[in-house]
Amino acid sequence: MDDEMIARVRQIIDQIGSTQRAFAEQIQLDESKLTKSLRGRRRLSSSELARIAEVGGRTVEWLLSGVEPRSMVFAHRSALDARAVATTAGRDVLGTVAERYQGLEVLDLAPAAVEWPAVPGGWSFVAAASEMADAATQQLGRSVLDLPIADLVDAVEDRFGIDVIVTRLPGACDGLSYQDGAFRAIVLGATDMAARQRYTLAHELGHLLFGDAEQGLIEEEVLTPGAKSIEEKRADAFAAAFLVPEEQLMELIDSRDAADAFDDAVWRFGISPVALSWRMLNLELIDADQRRVLAGGSSARSASAIGEIEGHLARMQASSQLRPPMRLAMAAVQAYLDGEITIGPVAILLERSEDDARKMLRPSAPDAAMSVDNPETI
């Protein structure tokens, strides 16, 4: 173990005011082994480093390299005057998750990074958004038409290597996206506005794919569309093209007038009347007057018009459910089961107590009534 790492371990011991013996007990390590490690005659294992970092309130990355956790800036959907609130919310939600990722990354246990489509060139952000939406749909490997929000979230996480978290956010903030190297994340607000959550997911995916979340905070004025930046307009254009592909929309409309197919399209694509009305206007399927009328509806009204009120209520319930970053959580679970890390990171990612997390992962005792020793019950 190198001298600088030894110094950082000693720094933790000094900062928590512990004796070497007491510290060894805290990290579940024999004192003689800790002494050898601090004298440079023994290397600390990955699980021992994880316990030291946990007890010291540090990250494994800091122990190994001395690099402090990076500052966090976000691309997010919120009103401009609520930017500070949204940023604080993002740090609260993603701060510990990012640390857990960094810890696994240092130990080479983090989920593998996924390659993204190349960013399109050209001067038109609308054309670039449309091209990226096509590439994203291809990478997703399936159509988003009729895809429930939970399945869409799972698919985005799996196919793009993005950790997606659904949690409670301030009212002014619908979602956040963040990227730091291979760590990519989207935070969605739990809400009963299912269409809005779905659109936010696609919007934040657009920010990430175009690299906006690596360039600092995107200042967005939701209430004044004309004030939106190019990045925001491009993310909006991407979301519309990704969620409502032109070819599929035309197939759904078929021989009907676009306005007559509107309620059906709102339901099938899971998008709000406002968003769909703009999509249809931009595709020249309706005129401006029709757009204003159609935008005045609601998802509930469209669902009612086609007899899908029960389905609408089910969507509201689904979009209200909290969700941990499952991709990262499963990597942490595997690392814990392999003895590489402690239960602490797993509990944090699953938002459980350490005792509850252990119980969740404890092997179930065989059911005596179903054992081969009692064949009459089989």
From TrEMBL:
Domain of life: Bacteria
PROSITE patterns reported in the protein's UniProt record: HTH_CROC1 (PS50943)
Pfam families, alphabetized: Peptidase_M78
Domain HTH cro/C1-type, residue spans: 19-63
CDD domains: HTH_XRE
InterPro entries: Cro/C1-type_HTH, IrrE_HExxH, Lambda_DNA-bd_dom_sf, Rad_response_metalloprotease
Record-stated family: Belongs to the short-chain fatty acyl-CoA assimilation regulator (ScfR) family.
UniProt protein name: XRE family transcriptional regulator
Naturally occurring in which organism (per UniProt): Leifsonia stereocauli
Source species taxonomy: Bacteria, Bacillati, Actinomycetota, Actinomycetes, Micrococcales
